[in-house]
Task: structure prediction
Amino acid sequence: KIETYIGPPSIEAGGSDYTMLVVIPTDSLDNPITNNTLVSAKYQFLETQEEKDIFTKNLIAYKKIYSQNESGRMLVSSECLNFNSKEFTINIGASIPTNFTISDKRSHDHADGNQITSFLTSVIKDKHGNMVSDGTYVNFFITNKNGNILKTSGITIGGIATSQMIHPDHEDVWSVKAYVNGMAESNVLTLNYKQVINDFEVIFTNNNREITIGPLQSFMKQMIPDGLQVKLTIYKDNLPVQTLLNTSFNGFVDFSLKPDVIKNDIYKFSITTAGLEKTFENKKVW
Result:
C-alpha cells in the first residue's frame, strides 16, 4: 500500500513557492519498502501533465513541486509498485499584487451631502498578470482640502474592488488614493465638489426663543434632501453657553431655546451649515 501526504495546499504563483509531496510505501504487512524503490510523482496543471521519478530513502520518498507563473489548480498523485494514491489538489494563487489605478462614478459633482460617489479599481493583478484572489482587501483614503482623512474600503470580486462615500455637504476637494496594505497602491484621484447652498435665511420668533433656518435649497433651487446638519451655538460674553445640533426636514430646521438653560438676556448666535456661518450679535432673548 501507499501513504501520501502533501502540503501546503495553497501556494503563490511565480516559481519561487512550492508544495512538498511525501510518499511512504509499505508492503502488505505495513513494513517499509527498501531504499531506492521507484515512486512516480504525477501532476497536472492547465495544459501540462508531468511525471517525475523519485526514489525512497530512509522509508520515504519526497519531491518539491514548484508553482508556475500562472495561477490555477494543480492535481497531484503518486504511484509505487502498482499502487496509486488518491488525487490531491493544490491551489496556486496570485502572488503579491502590483500597483493599480482607480476611477470614480457619481451622478453629479455638487456637494449636496446626499448623493454617493463610487470608487472602482482597475483589475488588480500580480507581476505575472494573474488576477488577485476574490476577497483581497482594498482601503480607499480620502483627504479633503482641510487635511482631514476619510476612509472607506472594499474587497475584490473578479479583481476589481469598489467602495462608496457620500458627497460632502459643502464645497470641497478630495484627493483619493487606494492601497492593498503593504503591497500595492493606486494613483491619486482628485475630485472637486461644488457648493450648492450659497445663503440661507434665519427667522427669530417667540421672544427670539424659536429659531427657524430655511428654506435650504440645492443647486436647482429644490429643497435640500432631509438630513443636512445645522449647528447653533449661543455665546454670552464670548463664551459658549449652549450648542445645539439638528438636521433639516423638508428644507427647514427649527430650534427651541429652553428658559431654564437660556435665561432672559442678550446673547450672540452663530449658525453653521453647509460650510457657511451666520452670526447675530446682541440678540435679546426674553
About this structure: Residues 102-195 form a domain with the Immunoglobulin-like fold (CATH 2.60.40.10). The longest strand covers residues 276-285. The mean pLDDT is 94.
